[in-house]
Amino acid sequence: MRTQVGIIGAGPAGLMLSHLLHLEGIETVILENRSRAYIEGRIRAGLIEHWARDLLVDTGVGERLKRESLFHHGIHFCFDGALHHIDFQKLVGKGVTVYGQQEVIKDLVARRLADGGQILFEASDAAVHDLKGSPRITFNHGGKAQELACDLIGGCDGFHGICRPSIPDGVLTFYDREYPFGWVGILSESPPADDELIYSYHDRGFALYTMRSPSLARLYLQCDYHDDLANWPDRRIWDELHARLAGTRKLQEGKIVDKLLTAMHSFVVEPMQYGRLFLAGDSAHIQPPTGAKGMNLALADVVVLARAMTAYFKSGRSDLLERYSQTCLRRVWKAQRFSWWMTQMLHLNPDDNAFDRKRQLGELSYVVSSEAAATSLAENYVGLPVES
């Protein structure tokens, strides 16, 4: 097999990269080690920045999003027993969209297949070779060992994928931070607590009240880093969710259809490329979900990468490819800063004392009372522009 761009991973990054390149007449093949049913059913984050919504709509994969998504003008902070609204629309003229990542995946898969794109699901044992020469990807599919020759490779296979570890030792620099807490998250067949997200700071720990639809709530609770889901029966979860909302909104209980435990971790690798391999999305960086940047950063990466690859194939220019890491990392580190800021402001750190608790409350009070501080939050939350 041969193609211009081999893409490993059919997440938002890999699928959008393939879609954007197709629109420019560039051939791709996507290799995905999971089944189509698995990637389309996997529950993930669902908050889409303003520019990312426009990207999906403008490139022809946003029709269902326009019908089914929820538009939010802002968010709420809950602390000291009161709700405080940050109005993004008023502050920066933009908002955010709630639409599950799995729905974005479904839309992109359907469009790629309708356009004749090649997605090889359940392609196992993938490995990349000759990254500084004539790249190729070996893998197993349909019970046969196969090889894909290509000009460039998009490494979109996530934090645990094979692309990043394929880069020789000594090339990459790793930056990471482990946080001393995690999240217990549930998906509940119940209406959300409010029409917009609620970020709650409470002396029992952080809580986040969000949604996937008007009848499906997504709810999170801060927990210990080493906690176990067995310690979180349904009754305890609901009791904590009620307590941390502090009576500011009525929370209706429902059937819990999904339950997970998520660690808080920040990670960035530099550079995001080696030879003809280009990392995008979680394969190059992850951040705490407090700032809602995961899928949005992945989409931003591949917008930059698609532009660079298009210039390479259509005019022989390599300068944009050479600057790919430099361009993406400026945005990545701004997103890391924002995600860290939101996380440290809203979570109880076990090493903090009474001074730190008072400082957090002071910071929250400042953010909701200062137009300048609220504008900075809004600007980062709705999404910074993607650099060309």
Regarding quaternary structure, how should these chains be classified? single chain
Q: Let me know the number of strands.
A: 20
User: Distance N terminus to C terminus?
Assistant: 32 Å
- How many strands, which pairing sense, and closed or not: the largest β-sheet? 8 strands, mixed
Strand order of the largest sheet: 6-5-14-15-16-13-17-20
| Radius of gyration, CA atoms, in whole angstroms | 21 Å
What do the pLDDT scores average to?
96
Number of domains: 2
Q: Briefly note the CATH topology name of the largest domain.
A: FAD/NAD(P)-binding domain
CATH architecture name of the largest domain: 3-Layer(bba) Sandwich
CATH class of the largest domain: Alpha Beta
Q: Please mark out the parts with pLDDT under 50 across 5 or more consecutive residues, or reply none.
A: none
The proportion of strand residues reads: 25-35%
Question: What is the helical fraction, as a range of percent?
Answer: 25-40%
CATH superfamily of the largest domain: FAD/NAD(P)-binding domain
Structural class: alpha+beta
Shape: globular
* Contiguous helical run count: 12
